[in-house]
Write a structure and sequence with these properties.
The complex is a heterodimer of chains A (301) and B (283). Chain A is α/β, with parallel strands linked by helices and 301 residues long. Helices cover 41% and strands 14% of the residues of chain A. Classes of the chains: A alpha/beta (301), B mainly alpha (283).
Chain lengths: 301, 283
């Protein structure tokens, strides 16, 4: 059975059913980037407890299902716009960046591309440099192309090595530039608002598997925690080599985030092996109805 | 340098590489001479990365020493980074340690919480952390619960009866190996045994198994009525449950129970600790 890493998923918003299904589908490790929770926070204490849960409770919850849990720490771009609060969050972050399951600073970057967002993006780039952690960049939904290019410009202005940075939520329009500039280029398979996975297949056909990463970004919205394994199976169905699937759905994420010094394959190699054995041979979509198209593995575009 | 940390130093330095030792001693000195918490938080956080997370090696003599100051200490449940973290805790002057350590508890990751709870008993002013340890028992993270409840003398020494009973009850609910609770029999009390008997009845009513180790404590209330119930259900018990009943009967004065056991050849050669180990291995 193939093993997968989902390097971007917000498990805090997901149920135990999801954890079970993910493990069954072959997901062995996940990364949960610190993000916003739908409801804006109004107190620094709310951030503190959220960060604590990413390094504490959620890590334990995940382990019960045989999935190794990591996270990234950061102030998200949306809430960066509440400047007095953002300043307090920036004071909290140093207490969390050295925790054992923290593999990057993120997700940071732009939402509306305001002055406040720019300020806290830059401050957190400097923090990542200081503590020698990779950076996970969230690119905006609106005005994506300019926002993505601007993010890379700012990173370069701060002298960050692109091999330490994952630029996430790419599409066909941003992909080439991000790859050409040397960044890890991540795609989010998220129905309707980001990418469908038939498009993802085409991207891999065109660009190969070098530095390309697939994730789900599943959260509290209409999203799919099985996006990564489904996309992997769809790629195989469409004739993409097993090696390319392995790189885009496992190896590349491991390679970049292991630069933190906090993530290695042995972390999950002896993790709940019996559980994996138990579910071996089970199809990803057992009991589910395909949403669209002819394959069970399609995530709606 | 406090006595505790001098003493922990012996165990740590033997196991660290020269490079790790150098890093650690430097951080230790920084924490010790600092009047702000920053150095402590940073060093504590980085310890596993810099030191590694190998199992702790302790020879027989050292273990004898350790057991004097920390009853129940068992190196198989400790890693080297945990003991290093404890030594960093002991480096803080008692003037600040309550404040800094409490602050760290509020932002600690899971493994940090484990090390913190395991380490409290080594501190000079350990009693000041009683409220924190009682709060820790409320966790739902099993490794954190284990850090306080198992092989740790804190609860036995400082918890009130109510807080103690929560530790034991929760351990039984969570199916933890209660033979590893330090002071298990010494702190047994009537309120606890009464609750345990109620719990056994609740389990039977629901058609569920009663944790066999429960009888180690509930035996204090063993009487004719309970014996009747047990006789009725005995055939449905699995072998370790039956051995637990046998052991309870061996330790009781209840003549009718002894007669019944003799007539039906109900015996065991296990001790309670051995029974606990057998259960733990089975789980």
């Amino acid at each position: 059975m193939m093993r997968f890493i989902d390097p971007h998923i917000h498990m805090t918003s997901r149920t135990t059913d999801d954890y079970q299904a993910m493990r069954k589908a072959g997901i062995v490790a996940i990364i949960e980037p610190a993000f916003w929770l739908g409801q804006p926070r109004t107190e620094a204490g709310a951030f503190k407890d959220y960060f604590s849960s990413l390094v504490g409770w959620e890590q334990f919850r995940s382990s019960q299902f045989g999935i190794k849990h990591y996270c990234t720490m950061g102030l998200n771009s949306k809430e960066a716009n509440n400047v007095p609060l953002a300043e307090q969050v920036m004071e909290l972050l140093p207490q969390y960046v050295h925790k054992e399951n923290v593999v990057a600073i993120g997700e940071i970057g732009y939402d509306d591309q305001t002055e406040a967002e720019d300020r806290f993006f830059r401050e957190q780039i400097e923090l990542a440099k200081e503590v020698e952690l990779p950076i996970l960049v969230h690119t905006p939904h609106r005005d994506k192309k300019k926002g993505t290019y601007r993010s890379m410009d700012v990173l370069e202005e701060h002298g960050v090595d692109p091999s330490m940075v994952v630029i996430d939520h790419n599409n066909e329009e941003t992909c080439k530039e991000v790859l050409d500039r040397g960044y890890w280029t991540a795609f989010t398979i998220y129905p309707n608002t980001k990418m469908g996975n038939l498009r993802m297949v085409e991207v891999v056909k065109q660009y190969g598997s070098e530095r390309i990463i697939v994730d789900s970004s599943a959260d509290w919205g209409v999203s799919d925690p099985l996006s990564v394994p489904k996309t992997a199976h769809l790629m195989l169905e469409k004739g993409i080599s097993k090696e390319d699937v392995h790189k885009t759905c496992y190896q590349n994420a491991l390679e970049v985030y292991s630069k933190s010094g906090n993530m290695k394959e042995s972390d999950w190699e002896d993790y709940s092996i019996d559980q994996a054995d138990l579910h071996e041979g089970n199809c990803v979509l057992r009991g589910q109805t395909p949403k669209q198209g002819s394959s069970d593995n399609i995530v709606a575009n | 340098m406090t006595t505790t940390s001098e003493y922990l130093h012996q165990f740590i330095s033997k196991q660290l590489s020269p490079q790790a030792n150098e890093w650690f001693e430097k951080k230790y000195a920084e924490v010790q001479s600092s009047d702000t918490s920053r150095a402590f938080f940073l060093a504590f956080g980085m310890t596993p990365k810099k030191i590694g997370t190998e199992k702790l090696h302790v020879d027989e003599n050292s273990l004898t020493e350790l057991l004097k100051s920390y009853p129940g200490f068992n190196p198989i449940y400790w890693s080297i980074d945990q003991l290093c973290r404890v030594r960093l805790m002991s480096a803080i002057s008692t003037e600040y340690n309550h404040q800094w350590i409490t602050q760290l508890f509020s932002t600690a990751d899971m493994n940090e919480q484990v090390a913190l709870y395991k380490g409290l008993f080594f501190l000079e002013n350990v009693k000041d952390f009683t409220e924190q340890a009682v709060e820790g028992v409320r966790t739902n993270m099993q490794p954190v619960f284990d850090a306080i409840a198992l092989n740790n003398p804190f609860a036995e020494t400082y918890f009130s009866e109510g807080a103690w009973n929560q530790v034991v009850l929760k351990a039984i609910f969570m199916n933890r190996p209660i033979y590893r609770i330090v002071g298990l029999e010494e702190r047994n009390n009537e309120n606890l045994t009464s609750t345990l008997i109620d719990f056994a009845h609740e389990r039977w009513a629901a058609g569920r198994q009663v944790v066999p180790e429960l009888w180690r404590l509930a035996k204090e209330r063993f009487d004719s009525d309970l014996l009747k119930e047990i006789i009725e259900k005995f055939k449905t018990f699995d072998s370790l449950e039956q051995e637990a009943i046998a052991l309870m009967i061996q330790e009781t004065e209840l003549a009718e129970a002894k007669d019944w056991a003799a007539q039906n050849n109900i015996t065991t050669n296990k001790s309670w600790d051995e029974l606990g180990q057998a259960l733990e291995n089975q789980n």
